[in-house]
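Continuing the batch. This is chain 6 of the set; chains 1 through 5 are on the previous pages. Same settings as before, nothing changed between runs. Recording input and output for traceability.
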Amino acid sequence: MTNVELVTAAELRLMQGLAQRVTAVRPELVNAEAMFGELAWNWGKGRAEDDTGRPRRLWLSDGELVAWAWATLPHRVRRNDGSVKDVTEACLTYQVHPDHAELIDEVIDWYDATAAGIERTVMPSAADGFALKRWAAHGYETDSAALGDTGSWTQLNERDLTEVEHPVLPTGFRFRTADEAGPEAAVQAHLDAWSPSAYTAESYESVRRTPGYRGDLHILVEAPDGTMASSTIMWLDEANRSAEFEPVGTHPEYRRRGLARAMLLHGMHRARAAGATHATVACLGAPGHPRARGLYYGLGFRELSRDAPLVKAGGVG
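Output for chain 6:
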């Protein structure tokens, strides 16, 4: 039942398609990790790493994908500063179409069998009452640590693009696209914002090949000295006319200058020109992580949904 081969580009497109269909009818049920763009970003940057620890299972009905589960198992991550991060627990990302809600029990059984003996975490949508009851019935409990003041749960935010403020950059800064700046600049912008990171030139090449990536919607802010001071990728979901920002980051030496705000406004204008009518962006939701949430709220975003982090001890079931 468990398939530990890489998720293929064709399978990723099916998973993105399910995200689009659920977004059209029950957007609050799409976990931030299962969004159209988030799936592409995680799949693309992970292709350059050893992915044998990420088994998956797909459920189809009459040839159409109606549920999927993608587990991350314990592994080691080598980062650009030479450090190593050991991931010791299992984590599940999944999506079930609401018309096939009963499949959640099969998803849970598959996850328990795949990650048997390991601490298991999962973050279903807090709006999915049926799924939360089924996770509880299988022995999953609220993850108190994840829900703490500095916890790791995510909230998804959205706004419409009817009226978008005009972006203003400090003197000497300018907007660029990844198509204009080139791969080396795009990779360095990410590393500067997120170091230490496992992101590489190979990671970016994989991201560029993901369904939904567009170099003209990969926005950077160039400083007067040529440094790419801020960057974001927008993922255009044409079916729902939505643009998702993921990731969003700024070089530490260029923060608190309004660059991210201007970049996001510029991105929203470009997204609207590409056909989008609303935008989404995720951020950490715990009180101890206010900076990104404050930025997005200041731009008119408001919470659409939030995670409900759950955990099951390694020795249980």
